[in-house]
Write a structure and sequence with these properties.
Length: 180
């Protein structure tokens, strides 16, 4: 019987995957603060502020949860975002820590990273993380990954080791200081 079943499917193309491509790369958002279940949540596509809050058991968001222009925010949160809901129905938006980003397989933007974020990268200790920040502060933001070679202590080998963990140009989560 098994031979017949195998022969019946022989030569047929494999069945199409039923999982949409967007689910292959989930969006991770950390929700903290005035919610029942704080934590990191996975979404199949970038969620709105209200969707992320609801998923974490936050209060039903109505017109009092306001975004940039004083209306319910419909902006989408990128992967690696950290949403802190305040008890006054406001919010603070930032980035997850470098260690969290690395654990989830998300990249770190060295132009926004703190010293602790940079230390999460393989082979980057406190001294080198400090030099990266000092270089960034004195020379401006890095434009491309190879610009890190100008930092004392980063050579071609180290750069190749950290390259897969870096992202540039606002492709990550929003800056730490956004709040409403």
């Amino acid at each position: 019987m098994l031979l017949w079943a195998w022969r019946a499917n022989f030569g047929l193309p494999p069945a199409a995957l039923s999982t949409p491509a967007k689910q292959l790369h989930p969006v991770f958002v950390e929700v903290q603060g005035a919610v029942a279940h704080p934590g990191v949540y996975s979404f199949p596509e970038p969620p709105t502020l209200a969707e992320a809050c609801r998923r974490a058991g936050g209060a039903a968001l109505g017109s009092e949860f306001r975004g940039e222009e004083g209306k319910l925010s419909a902006g989408k949160l990128p992967s690696g975002a950290r949403l802190e809901v305040t008890s006054e129905n406001g919010y603070r938006l930032g980035r997850m820590t470098g260690a969290q980003l690395m654990t989830l397989g998300l990249a770190i933007d060295p132009n926004q990273a703190s010293q602790a974020d940079l230390e999460a990268l393989p082979g980057i200790g406190p001294a080198l993380a400090g030099r990266i920040i000092a270089y960034r502060q004195s020379h401006g933001p890095f434009k491309k990954i190879d610009d890190l070679l100008a930092v004392s202590g980063i050579g071609p080998k180290k750069l190749e080791k950290i390259r897969p963990y870096l992202v540039f140009g606002g492709q990550g989560a929003p800056p730490l200081d956004h709040q409403k």
